[in-house]
């Protein structure tokens, strides 16, 4: 893991600003005096390992970046990144399989931090039809496969709306600690062609409560909304960075088609 060249105090300040907290508010949440917190952020005081972890916890810093903070402060990382194929991950794999299988006949996919496909249920095949083989080669990136001209994009009825929604999600993820890969992915996807207007702000139409995904399929149209699920209280980076996206029918016609 490459270490950040900034002092740990500057990184903690960046995270505090990212979370829109004042020093007084973070002091109250963490039990660290405002004076001591100020000294840490300015480099006048070196935080202990326990203080780094306490502040990172109150700032809801992702586990990967908590390890980075520890390394920058001169301490060993504490959070492992166990391959999903490891025997230690048997129960995690079983939980994922149970969730996505139980969601059938509706689609469900599992992705990692960089939106690479980790797993999917059989119903997710409704999205795979017509996607070029090179986009499905592992590691297949679901955002790239969705918006690429050789991917799902030609079948998305509301491509401009859905594309704006996906890019907004990715843009929110590309913060200062997100890494170059997500920034490069955002630049790549933004450059893909789109012949529909893309709203700058997601506004609801009549009766809309979510941004739907509308897909042409077998001569008809299917409409979906999705729900994201993550693991609660993860202590491993791999587990913390997994997300299950479950797609639900947005209208009765789609529900009937999928159940059939």
Keywords:
260 residues, 434 Repressor (Amino-terminal Domain), Beta-Lactamase, 13 helices
Could you walk me through the main structural features you see in this protein, from its secondary elements to its overall organization?
This is Transcriptional regulator. It comes from Rhizocola hellebori. The chain is an alpha+beta fold. It contains 13 helices and five strands. The protein has helices at residues 8-18, 23-30, 34-42, 49-58, 63-72, 90-102, 125-128, 133-136, 142-147, 159-173, 180-190, 237-240, 252-259; strands at 108-111, 117-120, 213-217, 220-229, 243-249. Strands 2-1-5-4-3 form a five-stranded antiparallel β-sheet. Strand 1 and strand 2 form a beta hairpin. Helix 1 (8-18) packs across helix 3 and helix 10 (159-173) runs antiparallel to helix 11 (180-190). The longest helix is centred in the middle third of the chain and has 15 residues, at 159-173. It starts with 7 loop residues before the first helix and ends with a helix. The model has no long low-confidence stretch (mean pLDDT 92).
Can you lay out the helices and strands and say which pair or pack?
Blueprint: H1 8-18, H2 23-30, H3 34-42, H4 49-58, H5 63-72, H6 90-102, E1 108-111, E2 117-120, H7 125-128, H8 133-136, H9 142-147, H10 159-173, H11 180-190, E3 213-217, E4 220-229, H12 237-240, E5 243-249, H13 252-259
Antiparallel strand pairs: 1-2, 1-5, 3-4, 4-5
Helix pairs in contact: 1-3, 10-11
């Amino acid at each position: 893991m490459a270490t950040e060249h900034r002092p740990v105090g500057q990184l903690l300040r960046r995270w505090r600003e990212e979370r829109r907290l004042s020093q007084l508010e973070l002091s109250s949440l963490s039990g660290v005096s405002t004076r001591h917190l100020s000294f840490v952020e300015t480099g006048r005081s070196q935080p202990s390992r326990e203080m780094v972890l306490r502040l990172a916890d109150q700032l809801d810093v992702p586990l990967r970046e908590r390890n980075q903070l520890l390394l920058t402060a001169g301490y060993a990382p504490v959070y492992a990144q166990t391959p999903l194929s490891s025997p230690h991950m048997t129960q995690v794999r079983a939980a994922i399989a149970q969730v996505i299988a139980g969601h059938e006949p509706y689609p469900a996919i599992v992705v990692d931090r960089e939106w690479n496909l980790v797993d999917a249920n059989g119903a997710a095949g409704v999205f795979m039809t017509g996607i070029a083989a090179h986009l499905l080669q592992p590691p297949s990136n679901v955002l790239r496969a969705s918006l690429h001209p050789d991917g799902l994009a030609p079948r998305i009825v509301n491509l401009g709306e859905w594309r704006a929604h996906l890019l907004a999600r990715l843009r929110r993820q590309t913060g200062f600690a997100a890494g170059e890969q997500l920034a490069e992915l955002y630049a790549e996807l933004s450059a893909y062609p789109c012949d529909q207007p893309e709203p700058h702000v997601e506004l609801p139409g009549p009766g809309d409560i979510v941004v739907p995904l509308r897909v042409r399929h077998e001569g008809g149209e299917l409409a979906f909304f999705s729900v994201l699920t993550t693991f609660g209280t993860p202590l491993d980076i791999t587990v913390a960075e997994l997300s299950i996206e479950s797609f639900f029918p947005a209208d009765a016609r789609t529900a009937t088609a999928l159940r059939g």
